[in-house]
Amino acid sequence: MKRFYRYLIYKLYSWRLAKKDDDTPIATVILLITITHIFQFLILLSVIVKVFPKITIFDNLPKIYVGIFFIIFIIINYFVLYNKDRWQQYIEEFKNENEAERKRGWILVAAYLLGSVLLFFIMIPVLFGF
């Protein structure tokens, strides 16, 4: 797995472990990453629909199928991403970062997560002229 993605999991997981009020740090991390992936998927889908307007596969798609797709997507992400031993290795790999690396890392992680969501909302009016 690429270093940034390992670092992303490390940052989110260690942040959730530090919060004593959260009983499910694994679920929180998986959901955050999955939501980010969904927004990235929607960006790609928006660009494809704009570039190839004849693609009408999604015009009359029932909402239940969309919901089922997202549930399956979350389950697949769980099985692909989560491995307790691997996540523990990520903690070991990055635990010795200094303060400057830690701050820079948080900026990169926040930019990735927020940027994925914001880019979607910026792309829609740009692509479709709202």
- The secondary structure category is mainly alpha
Give the CA-CA distance, first to last residue: 38 Å
| Helical residues, percent | over 70%
* Rg from Cα: 17 Å
Based on Cα principal axes, name the global outline. Answer: globular
Low-confidence stretches: none
Instruction: Classify the beta-strand content into a percent band.
Output: under 5%
Please render the helix and strand layout as text.
Elements: H1 3-18, H2 25-51, H3 63-81, H4 84-94, H5 99-128
Question: How would you characterize this protein structure?
Answer:
The structure is a single chain. The chain is mainly α and 130 residues long. Helix content is 79%, strand content 0%. The model has no long low-confidence stretch (mean pLDDT 87).
Short structural summary:
The chain is an all-alpha fold and 130 residues long. The chain is 79% helix and 0% strand.
List keywords for this structure.
130 residues; mainly alpha; 79% helix
